[in-house]
User: Which sequence fits this backbone?
């Protein structure tokens, strides 16, 4: 389905199920299909909304690109769907967007799920890697990003035991368009440090991380957990960065339990 925002930007999204609205925000360089197993597992108990961020999947590819713009685009989608507040669930870059959405539009956030992500901005080492990735993408095309990220995206156990997950993650990365890749890398480089916002988060927050995540390791999740009062931290064993795809049943169980608690509150 397509929502059209005031600036003409088109957002492609799926909207399945009924119940408490959950907005799922994908990571980089992925698209809404990252969440297909969450739709399968949770649409029987929640309204699962899975958009493509600007530049990815079937959404419009024109900028501007920033975490704030992605967040505003998602609020346009919530308006379009007539949803006042959603459980905002972001994985990795999707978590950076979730934190921007909280900063800019806290009244739209019923609860937060921060999966395999971090609050801090890029340090000089990370910025240099991104500049190198941009150079490589411009020189050899967008698929070089998937090629370089493949190993880090999926944990060691999954690579050993479930190669089909590695293939699926790579398939999603390989179809990411150049505009989305360049826009998102520049947006991640420019993103502010969200650490100062963490103590102000006063909605229920679930933090999930794959034990074998090497892109946003457990230490990053622990740091967010320490800074967000009352948050819950769950480490999924045998999963890496794409924890929701690597161990979907475990991920869905944690999210399902969290949603049940919200419904009781
Ligand atoms: C992601 O999975 O969204 C990215 O790896 C995040 C990042 O590069 O910081």
Assistant:
């Amino acid at each position: 389905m397509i929502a059209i925002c005031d600036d003409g930007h088109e957002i492609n999204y799926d909207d399945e199920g009924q119940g408490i609205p959950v907005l799922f925000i994908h990571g980089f360089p992925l698209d809404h299909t990252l969440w297909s197993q969450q739709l399968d597992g949770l649409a029987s108990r929640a309204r699962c909304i899975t958009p493509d961020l600007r530049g990815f999947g079937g959404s419009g590819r024109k900028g501007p690109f920033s975490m704030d713009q992605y967040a505003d685009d998602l609020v346009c989608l919530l308006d379009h769907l007539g949803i006042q507040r959603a459980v905002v669930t972001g994985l990795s870059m999707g978590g950076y967007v979730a934190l921007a959405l909280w900063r800019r539009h806290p009244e739209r956030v019923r609860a937060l799920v921060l999966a395999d992500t971090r609050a801090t901005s890029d340090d000089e080492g990370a910025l240099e890697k991104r500049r190198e990735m941009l150079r490589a993408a411009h020189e050899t095309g967008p698929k070089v990003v998937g090629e370089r990220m493949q190993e880090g995206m999926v944990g060691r156990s999954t690579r050993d035991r479930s190669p089909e997950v590695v293939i699926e993650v790579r398939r999603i990365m390989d179809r990411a368009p150049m505009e989305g890749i360049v826009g998102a890398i520049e947006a991640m480089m420019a993103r502010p440090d969200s650490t100062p916002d963490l103590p102000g988060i006063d909605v229920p927050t679930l933090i999930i991380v794959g034990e074998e995540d090497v892109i946003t390791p457990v230490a990053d999740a622990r740091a967010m957990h320490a800074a967000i009062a009352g948050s819950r931290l769950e480490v999924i064993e045998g999963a890496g960065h794409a924890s929701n795809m690597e161990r979907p049943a475990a991920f869905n169980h944690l999210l399902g339990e969290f949603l049940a608690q919200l419904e009781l509150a």
Summary: Residues 27-28, 92-93, 188, 215 surround D-malate (CB under 6 Å). The chain has one domain: 2-264. The mean pLDDT is 98. The longest strand covers residues 10-16.
